[in-house]
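In this section we walk through a basic example: taking a raw amino acid sequence and producing a predicted 3D structure, encoded as discrete structure tokens. The instruction is simple. Fold the sequence below.
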Amino acid sequence: MSETKGKGGHRAGVGYSIPAAAAAAGIPYKTLRRAIQLGQVKTVNFGGLERVTAGEVERIKALFADAA
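The resulting token sequence is shown next.
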């Protein structure tokens, strides 16, 4: 049986939901959603859900830290 973290949106090996990725990266949800739409952030589809990988979250942190 797999372990979930409830509403946190993250489960090991699957990636982050968009809201959870935004929270983990320390940026607003709308900023992340806009970056995805502009092709600045890549997502993967897993079980019909759009997810952000852990590596991409780390890249987002660096990307937006430079912009600040």
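Looking at the output, two observations stand out. The domain at 15-67 is CATH 1.10.1660 (Multidrug-efflux Transporter Regulator; Chain: A; Domain 2). The chain has a mean pLDDT of 84. In the next section we compare this with other chains.
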